[in-house]
Amino acid sequence: MAGRPPILFMTFTGNAVLALLATQSFAAAQETTQHPPTTQAQYERWQKELSNWGRWGTDDQLGTLNLVTPAKRKQAAALVKEGFAVSLARDASVAKEIDNPCPIEWALTMDTPGTVMDRIGYPCIHGPGTTHLDSFAHIFFDGKMWNGVPRSLVTKQGGAARNSILTMKNGIVTRGLLYDIPRLKGVEYLEPGTRIFPEDLEAWEKKTGVKVGPGDAFIVRWGKWARRAKVGPWTNDEAAGLDNSCIPWLKKRDVALLGWETAGYSPQPQGDLPKSALHNFVLEILGVHILDRGDFEALSQAAAARNRWEFQLIVAPLPIPNGTGSPVNPIAIF
């Protein structure tokens, strides 16, 4: 159900509140029974069975971006019918808030009658307040990153000698598809802790007639920013998100880029894997770069107004030598 501000519970009697909470607890328990969490044993087995390491050679640093071919870029360009463009980025903010503990730093450095200059700093590129692109040098599995490259090639002094953000200097231009799960469910947004399963993704495909495939950018919305606009910011980064059972689905679909508002879901069911399990697996084992902390509200409205859920997507990171990520302003063009 769409979220409501907690203060509204004051309008119910005590018994009504207890009944509502009991209903929600039963629904959560029922979902866990129908969809038990992915086990650690499954997760470790998938690291071997689903790995893309070596698929494009031992020196590869692009991962599934290899699937964004000239033909794929031409296909994406053909989706531009109106020339209408919309950003997928959250506005940068200098305000420190409970859901943005590490804001950007901005100030004017010169203010004269003829010239004004400013500076900007991102002390936390990978933080929750910045729409950014993760490089493969961001996360490690057992001392290795994408394609088996050792952790030792990323140092505090020199940054990432391999798998840095600079590998994407030429940008990502491909077919993007929005999977708008709140619209599928008939709500404004999903509640934190809601898990999105492969059957949800395929139900969306059946509803819209579009399907993500090799070389595409898979953009999934749960409605974080719609919820924030209604109830305000909240702590602990609680969120809805893709269930870990989506990992084999993502492998099968061969997506080139995964975009979302938040990484992982919480609260989590008892016995579940760590919240970052899917994020880390997709990035380092499947070799899918992640567009993290996007704001898809304007995209959702534009797509719904046109009943068009595919578009050309352009993502251009800053050319930061040895960087592990970059702020980005992704653009969808209809």
Write a concise keyword list for the protein shown above.
globular, 334 residues, single chain, 2 domains, 9 helices, disordered N terminus, alpha/beta, two-stranded antiparallel ribbon, Glucose Oxidase, domain 1, nine-stranded mixed β-sheet
Radius of gyration, in angstroms, nearest whole number: 21 Å
Q: What's the CATH first level of the largest domain? A: Alpha Beta
User: Could you estimate the helical fraction of the residues in percent?
Assistant: 25-40%
Task: Give the DSSP E fraction (strand runs of 2 or more residues).
Answer: 15-25%
Poorly predicted ranges: 1-27
The chain-level structural class is alpha/beta
**How many strand units?**
15
Main sheet summary: 9 strands, mixed
Listing every helix as H and every strand as E from the N terminus to the C terminus, the arrangement reads HHHEEEEEEEHEHEHEHEHEHEEE
Strand order of the largest sheet: 1-15-13-7-9-11-12-4-14
How many domains would you count in the coordinates?
A: 2
Q: Given the C-alpha coordinates, what overall shape results?
A: globular
